[in-house]
């Protein structure tokens, strides 16, 4: 027995409507900015709150006092509604660049609760314009944080970054500032820059577009390998903060041996040693 024509048509229309809903899902609800820290996710565009930020206290960061004071002053001015610069933290690996950004945010946020931090992954930079539009209309002030920023051969993501630094016709949102970390001062590998110079018809112009990306950051904060005294001071500070009981002579001997096996000294190596030491001594790093 065949169905009436009107019932067949209704079923077809329902299936078409369901298919269209799958292709074009309903709009996302308005973002909730009641938290302090968020991560940007595109497709669909949303900011996901972070319940617990992985960071250390500002007082535990040793050997970066100049960068700390400069970034703290810049962030405090921004949080209070005054002009502030975008900042590029560049230099040696493991010397606390990203740790400093998160620690400074926590310190200033305790004074100015409206200050929030939003992390953007490097691979999500093409969607940064949509993120800016979302933050432009949101309450509060935002540190847009991009960690380990660098660009490789044939990587055009750096062009998307200019939307944050220059802002296009609308300008950068007044309530947003960008902090980025990188191992490279100019964000591009040297051989990439040299290749642009050697193959371009006008070498200086080809190189300028890439090298000048760093120039768009108002603050350049350099991080350099630490001395042995600074390395040991970092470890002593961690031990005191977490209550790890150990004699000075034993601590120094073990710390220097640990550094020798790693072939480097840095804040990251110091923290890895403290993690190992705490595990062996039964101390929780809360």
UniProtKB/TrEMBL annotation:
Keywords: Hydrolase, Protease
Top-rank lineage group of the source organism: Bacteria
Record-given protein name: ATP-DEPENDENT PROTEASE SUBUNIT
Gene3D superfamilies in UniProt: P-loop containing nucleotide triphosphate hydrolases
Molecular-function annotations in GO: peptidase activity
UniProt keyword Manganese, yes or no: no
Keyword Protease found: yes
Cross-referenced Pfam families: DUF815
Example of a GO biological process term: proteolysis
Ranges for domain AAA+ ATPase: 83-208
Native species: uncultured Rubellimicrobium sp
């Amino acid at each position: 027995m065949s169905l009436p024509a009107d019932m067949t048509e209704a079923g077809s229309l329902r299936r078409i409507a369901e298919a269209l809903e799958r292709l074009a899902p309903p709009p996302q609800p308005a973002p909730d900015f009641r938290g302090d820290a968020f991560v940007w996710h595109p497709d669909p565009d949303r900011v996901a709150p972070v319940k617990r930020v992985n960071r250390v206290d500002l007082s535990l960061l040793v050997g970066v006092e100049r960068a700390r004071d400069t970034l703290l002053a810049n962030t405090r001015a921004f949080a209070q509604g005054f002009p502030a610069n975008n900042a590029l933290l560049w230099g040696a690996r493991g010397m606390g660049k990203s740790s400093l950004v998160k620690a400074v945010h926590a310190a200033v946020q305790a004074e100015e609760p409206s200050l929030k931090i939003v992390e953007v992954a490097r691979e999500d930079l093409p969607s940064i314009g949509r993120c800016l539009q979302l933050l432009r209309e949101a309450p509060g002030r935002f540190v847009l944080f991009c960690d380990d920023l660098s660009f490789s051969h044939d990587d055009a993501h750096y062009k998307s970054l200019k939307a944050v630094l220059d802002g296009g016709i609308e300008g950068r949102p007044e309530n947003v500032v960008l902090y980025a970390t990188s191992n490279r001062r100019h964000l591009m590998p040297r051989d990439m820059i040299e290749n642009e110079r050697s193959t371009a018809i006008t070498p200086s112009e080809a190189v300028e577009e890439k090298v000048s990306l760093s120039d768009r950051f108002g603050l350049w904060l350099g991080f350099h390998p630490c001395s042995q005294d600074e390395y040991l001071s970092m470890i002593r500070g961690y031990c005191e903060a977490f209550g790890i009981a150990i004699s000075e002579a034993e601590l120094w001997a073990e710390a220097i041996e640990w550094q020798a096996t790693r072939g480097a000294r840095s804040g990251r190596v110091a923290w890895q040693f403290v993690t190992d030491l705490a595990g062996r001594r039964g101390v929780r790093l809360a």
